Amino acid sequence: MTLADARRDYLATCTTAMPIGGLIAWTALALASYSLGKDLPIFAPFVAAASPVPLALIIDKLRGKLGIWAEGQDNPVSQLFMRFITVVGLLIPFAAIAAQAAGNLDILILGLAIFAGIMWVPHGWGADDPAGFIHFVIRAVLCYAAYLLAPEAIRGATIAGAAALTYIYAIAAMRKPSSAR
Hints:
Blueprint: H1 3-13, H2 17-36, H3 44-50, H4 52-63, H5 67-71, H6 76-102, H7 105-117, H8 120-126, H9 130-149, H10 155-173
Helix pairs in contact: 2-3, 2-4, 2-10, 3-7, 6-7, 7-9, 7-10, 8-9, 9-10
């Protein structure tokens, strides 16, 4: 299989389920963080970072389009995307350690928001679509800006909200499977 064929097959199996799942997860975290403030359970950011993949699987299953989930073992581009899930998983303890050392839950939300956004880099490369990399850059810049500029009382909610907003861009900008033909 040529790289062009692998990319075309990968794009043909992609759906908007991942950005929809991400939008749901990070919006829920933003709302929970805003309403609970310092009482936000420490596990909540981990749930938001981990939820987009299973939510996407559920969304695709309900739509009857298992695409990338069914093809994952056959296409090397899909395999790269799936391996990046492991890469992100291995980075997450760094955010937890930094947040614990700083005694600041906002650091955890910031780290998880940025690390979870890394997934869009291999997706964009795999789909031969600049929207994936652009999504990650916008996400990182907005999350850092939220951390640096938002009032402390709503900083975590603002960071999660910034991450959620980037999924709207992804839904609108990412190449659709119909363009793989």
